[in-house]
Amino acid sequence: MRLKLFKRVSAVLLTLVLLAGLMPAAAFAAVNVPDTVWTDYAAADFAGGKGTEADPYQIATAEQLAKLSKDVSEGNHYQGTFFELTENIDLSSHRWIPIGIHKWELSGASTYSWFEGFVDGNNKTISGLIVDERTDKNAAGFFGDIRNVSGGTVGAKNLIISDASIYADEDGLMELRAGIFAGYVSANPGQQIVFENITVSGDIEIESTYGSNNVGGMIGYGDGVKAADCKAENISISGASNSGGFIGNSGDSVFENCEASGTVSGTWALGGFVGYTSTTSLSDPTTQSVYKHCAADVEITGSDWNLGGFAGYAEYGKFDNCVAFGNITSTVDGWEPNIGGFIGESDNADVDSSHAAGMVTSASSDYKAGGFVGNYVGGTFAECSFNSEENSGLTAAGIGTISSGVDGGSTNEVLANICEDYYSGHKYSSDWTIDTAATCTTDGSKFQHCERCDTKGNIAVIPATGHTMQKTDKVEAACTTPGKEAYYTCGTCGKHFEDEAGTVEIANLDEYGNIPATGHMAGAEWKSDGAGHWKECVYCGDKMDEAAHTYKWVTDKEATTTQAGSKHEECAVCGYSKTAVEIPAAEISAAEISDSPQTGDDSNIVFWIAVMLAAGTALTGTIFCRRKRKYSR
Asked: For residues 297 and 218, what is the distance between their CA atoms, to the nearest angstrom?
């Protein structure tokens, strides 16, 4: 695959100076690299199986896995042969020799011995992988060289490699290839090498002298690759060029539903997913690589040009529904940094529905960074976006002009685009957020926010709660205390109403339903005791018209000369009577005797009859005498 030459000789010279400055005085001091190698402990046989697809060779131990590495190094390609891991394997005891030998020396000499079979990892984990090719200079990785030369099924699936350590040195090589899973992968035209459901993690440290590197978290160099549902997680790559979080250098390959995360630092052509992407046949776009629904969340730091959140240098490449989350930082000041949120430099990239959410930071004061593309030479774009909130002042392209297809947006707007395009929908929280609270009579609303972009979704109505009425009973008015009509109070909204249904609201409770005090009303009957008399209020029983008695004497029985009588004091107003007192008989005078008898007095009745008869006779005689004189005249 052809690497694009630098455009300016001055840029090349400056790059070489910087690279020389980056070179350490001594080789890396790799941590805990064993002196022994696994091929010296290789088993004589596999655990079982016949190597067919129906009955693959069984690998249960590190020694049996080392047998595979040793056999390939000695020239057995295992073309058309199948393997299956039956146990998790720990490789930390010895240094791993990659499965397949690949070395392209600076002199032009090359050494190859590739693997051409298929490994089913059976969802097992290989841990403790340590590859150190700083001395032997072979392609570094679990696999050194995988090829599909003769056709058939070649590749691997369902395997996890965790916390690997890869060391390599470019000195003496035409190109250095390194990846945690495979350093070099290549298929003849019309053939493919398939990787499915593979996950790797770990560190790759490169000592670079010329910058002719192909380094990736999963694969260093790859053409004819078909990778699906693979992940390079939490990887760290340092010191190289043409480096990507997933693959370093790619052509005529397809990557679908693949992800990369971690950090990549080095010189030039650094990308969150791919460092350098082109064609396998010069300027033939039919042999370009295709990236479908892939994501890179990788922090990029570079000391040279062509840095992108997804692709460092896209000479060719088709990107459909891909995203770059990581931040990109260039330390270049003096020539074009070509730094962009998605692509560093685009010559013929075809990008659709792809987005860059990271921050782009450039040290250059003379050359502008791009929100989406650092240097736009050519390519087509449709429905793409970059984070203009985090990249204030940046346009879609730093150098060149992208006329359409790329828009800037706020952080949440870009993340919303990613949700819709990449994730095919939002990831709504299970918790609800109240937008408008419901009242007793008015509906409210609530929503669930997207945990990725904070978009409001699943907006739902909160039904009006209705009133929760509590009745206050009517208070009757008293003589001195006012009353109040019954009313209802809602326990939710605190409003007052005349009716339980809440149809008539009381605007001012203080003024509503007041019943004036009745005042006292005296009864007809007098009440009394020894101290006085009064009337009682017919409503409350309080005393009214209270006054002292007005007494008069009342004779209950007349006294005679021989018999005592009685009398009492009686109130002239209320009739209250004191206790009767005696009238002694001796108190009867002659004058009192001439008086008419008192009612109920029957003493001396004979005497009084005689007096009455005498009086009557005298009256009759007088009348007779007057008539006689009259007629005598």
From this structure: 14
pLDDT tens-digit series, residues 207-264: 987 888 999 999 999 999 999 999 999 999 999 999 999 999 999 999 999 999 999 9
Going from the C-alpha of 142 to that of each of 67, 161, 215, 276, 298, the distances in angstroms are 14, 9, 14, 22, 22
Can you list the positions of beta strands (E) in 8-73? 57-59
CA distance linking residue 446 with residue 436, whole number of Å: 7
Q: Are strands 487-490 and 469-472 parallel, antiparallel or unpaired?
A: antiparallel
Is residue 469 a contact partner of residue 440, using CB atoms and an 8 Å limit?
no
Strands 456-462 and 444-449: antiparallel
Displacement of CA 163 from its chain's centroid (Å): 32
Q: How many helices (H) and strands (E) does the chain have?
A: 5, 53
Nearest-angstrom CA–CA distance, 322 and 296: 8
CA distance 294 to 286: 20
CA distances from 370 to 87, 295, 480, 576 (A): 48, 19, 87, 116
What is the per-residue burial (b if ≥16 Cβ within 10 Å, else e) of 162-194?
Answer: bbbbbbbbbeebebbbbbbbbbbbbbeeeebbb
Report how far residue 330's alpha carbon sits from residue 369's, in angstroms, rounded to the nearest whole number. 9
pLDDT digits (tens, 9 = 90+) for 532-565: 999 999 888 889 889 999 999 999 899 998 999 9
* 1-10, 174-183, 326-335: range with lowest mean pLDDT: 1-10
Coil, strand or helix: which one is 585?
helix
Contact 251, 213 (CB under 8 A): no
- Phi, psi angles (nearest 5°) of residue 414: -65, -40
Beta carbons within 8 Å of 118's beta carbon, 6+ residues apart: 53, 81, 82, 83, 153, 154, 155, 156, 157, 194
Nearest to 347 by CA among 313, 305, 324, 304: 313
Torsion of CA 386, 387, 391, 397, to 10 degrees: 10
Query: Tens of pLDDT along 566-581?
Result: 999 999 999 899 899 9
